[in-house]
Amino acid sequence: MRNQPMLTALLALAVACVCGRGNANAADLKIIANPSVSASSLSSDELKGVFLATKTSLGDGSHVEPVLEKGGPVHESFLKTYLGKTDNALETYYRSLVFTGKGSMPKTVAGDADVVEYVAKTKGAIGYVGSGANIAGVKTLEVK
Q1: Residue 98 lies in a domain
Q2: Per-residue pLDDT tens for 46-66?
Q3: CATH of residue 97
Q4: Please, is 70 exposed, middle or buried when counting C-beta atoms within 10 Å of its C-beta (0-12, 13-18, 19+)?
Q5: pTM for the complete prediction?
């Protein structure tokens, strides 16, 4: 087989592409909101503030309520890209807010479909999903 090295290289590339999908990045994420949120975009600082419970409204006055995924590559990518925290660090952060009476634990759901469902039916809800998620009933927000 004269093409064996080429076949091996192509197979390795295919495996890397398929297996590498576990590591999502910002391009693999969509920030979604309930249609009651009038904003069409928000800054990364606003997004961080919403998910760290330091903001309850956007610059346009829209009330917002974050919803998080319980785990997985989309969740990990969101935390790394927009919050600069690990899952454990975020959990500790929220627990300290609860302990000091400065906040409460955010809504947490199992995955993309649950995030979309919750955001669609909850006024002011904002969440994140993978780029391939079906987002019927919600709107996408651009992060600037």
Answers
A1: yes
A2: 999 999 999 999 888 889 999
A3: 3.40.190.10
A4: exposed
A5: 0.80
